User: What shape does this take?
Amino acid sequence: MKKNKRKSSLKKKSLGKFASAIELYCSDKLREAGINFSYEEKQFTLMDSFRFKHKYFKMTSKKKLMSDRTNSVQQPIRYTPDFVGTDYKWIIETKGYLPSHHDFPMRWKLFLNYIMKNNLGYDVYLAKNKQQVDQAVTEILKSINDEAEWTKRDVL
Assistant: This one.
């Protein structure tokens, strides 16, 4: 089934810089609540790049034989959350439908582990629909109102 290119380009224009309608909704709700945030600006390196020095042969899509990738550099694993608080330590990740072959669940667990191991102190919300975004915003507002729960960010 072919997608209608005209409709998808119109949809992208209406979303502006956001990748999905749920991201746009989340941005609107945070603004309405007066909560300062950045959108897809902060990146976390979960694992550094490294050189694999042992013998390594890798399958290829266009060749019958594997290619020799011995001594190759493996790229780092990075994670960029959707919304990060600029005044308080919170993160909202919005996710709609995820295909079963998607790597997000593994990358998400690595991200949560990274936050814990590095004592970063972020409160984290993973929302997949408008009601869950509303709940995340409500929880953030509760925490802001109870200053004792938050570690104010250092001014850079």
Remarks:
- The beta strands are 37-39, 44-47, 50-52, 57-58, 67-68, 72-74, 77-79, 83-85, 90-94, 123-127.
- Residues 16-43+80-156 form a domain with the Endonuclease; Chain A fold (CATH 3.40.960.10).
- Residues 84 and 91 are 5 Å apart (CA to CA).
- The chain has a mean pLDDT of 87.
